[in-house]
């Protein structure tokens, strides 16, 4: 495998699909995963362990996680919103679990029906359950609405930094800072992420941006300035928010890879392969809007694809 400067993690199967009306089959989801690995995307959030009645798309979480574990070279992770979800993910045998809570108490109440403080306590129980396992499971924690909230408005930096410290103390082995609603701007990202990086020390930090207001890639640049080297993206920018009409989803994986590679930052990802997978997914999800400048305009003729996989 190529040396990587930046790690791109695919969240389209989770963050993207949770907003999509069409329910994909487990086989389709697993084909998506396998082809992403072939394209060089080895870190994928493959599903979410939430109650099927909350998100019917993830009723097959066990099947997808089990299938993903059988894909060579894939580091499969799943999102969990509570202890029960974490236990389900541990039981399936996943080696990576992503917990999420919101810096905005109001958003947390709406998303997981408990206060942020209660979610912190839930995380402590999850970390204890992880410690009881007789295998290594990497437990990551995400801080959602870290740059602002559609319900509560401004989110104080100190709230985010306090949560980062608390989650690391409680056993988080990786922290993701998320702009859940697409409120962040580059100056804000640079300022917050510098502080997060200083606070986290050796604990890996990732950023999760939404391109709701067109600043997604600018925010990636700002986070890079602050030293962040891992980003979530979703193929075709899949996703959105049912409470925000015309909102887009996560930053687009293929455009993000292009931006990084064009500047000489290696991702290990073959963009043309991503574009081929995107076409398949577009056909599976009729009527679902996808975003992406590279899919529309093509790669520049001057672009040297150093990651192209030689078949
Ligand atoms: N997976 C499957 N079932 C679960 C579950 C999970 N992670 N968590 C709870 N349940 C079940 C409980 O066993 C219980 O079942 P029962 O009615 O048969 O006894 C039922 O769901 C209610 O449990 P409770 O603990 O009261 O949950 P809740 O109704 O307060 O909902 C969450 C809490 C966290 C499960 C729910 O709000 C949720 O899934 N939120 C996530 C939403 C999301 O996906 N957001 C986007 C990503 S951040
Ligand atoms: Zn998101």
From TrEMBL:
Pfam families: HMGL-like (PF00682). It comes from Caballeronia fortuita. GO terms for biological process: ketone body biosynthetic process; L-leucine catabolic process. Residues 6-275 form the Pyruvate carboxyltransferase domain. Signal peptide: none annotated. This is Pyruvate carboxyltransferase. PROSITE patterns: AIPM_HOMOCIT_SYNTH_1, PYR_CT. One of its GO terms (molecular function) is hydroxymethylglutaryl-CoA lyase activity. Keywords: Lyase, Metal-binding, Pyruvate, Transferase. Coiled coil: none annotated. InterPro entries: AIPM/Hcit_synth_CS, Aldolase_TIM, HMGL, PYR_CT. Belongs to the alpha-IPM synthase/homocitrate synthase family. It comes from the Bacteria.
């Amino acid at each position: 495998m190529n040396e990587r400067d930046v790690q791109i993690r695919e969240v389209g199967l989770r963050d993207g699909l949770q907003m999509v009306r069409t329910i994909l089959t487990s086989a389709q989801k697993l084909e998506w995963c396998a082809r992403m690995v072939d394209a060089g995307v080895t870190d994928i959030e493959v599903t979410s362990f939430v109650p099927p009645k909350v998100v019917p798309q993830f009723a097959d979480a066990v099947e997808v996680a089990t299938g993903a574990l059988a894909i060579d070279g894939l580091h499969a992770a799943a999102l969990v919103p509570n202890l029960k979800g974490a236990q389900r993910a541990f039981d399936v045998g996943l080696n990576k679990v992503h917990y999420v809570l919101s810096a905005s108490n109001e958003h947390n109440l709406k998303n997981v029906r408990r206060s942020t403080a209660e979610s912190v306590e839930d995380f402590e129980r999850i970390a204890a359950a992880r410690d009881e396992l007789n295998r290594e499971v990497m437990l990551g924690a995400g801080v959602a609405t870290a740059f602002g909230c559609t319900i509560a408005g401004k989110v104080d930096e100190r709230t985010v930094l306090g949560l980062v410290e608390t989650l690391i103390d409680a056993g988080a082995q990786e922290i993701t800072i998320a702009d859940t609603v697409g409120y962040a701007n580059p100056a804000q990202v640079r300022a917050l992420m510098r502080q997060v990086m200083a606070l986290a020390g050796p604990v890996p930090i990732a950023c999760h941006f939404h391109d709701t207001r067109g600043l997604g890639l600018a925010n990636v640049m700002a986070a890079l300035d602050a030293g962040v080297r891992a980003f979530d993206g979703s193929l075709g920018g899949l996703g959105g928010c049912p409470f925000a009409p015309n909102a887009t989803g996560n930053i687009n994986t293929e455009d993000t890879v292009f931006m990084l590679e064009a500047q000489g930052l290696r991702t290990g990802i073959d963009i043309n392969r991503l574009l081929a997978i995107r076409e398949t997914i577009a056909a599976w999800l009729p009527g679902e809007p996808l975003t992406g400048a590279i899919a529309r305009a093509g790669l520049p003729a001057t672009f040297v694809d150093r990651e192209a996989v030689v078949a």
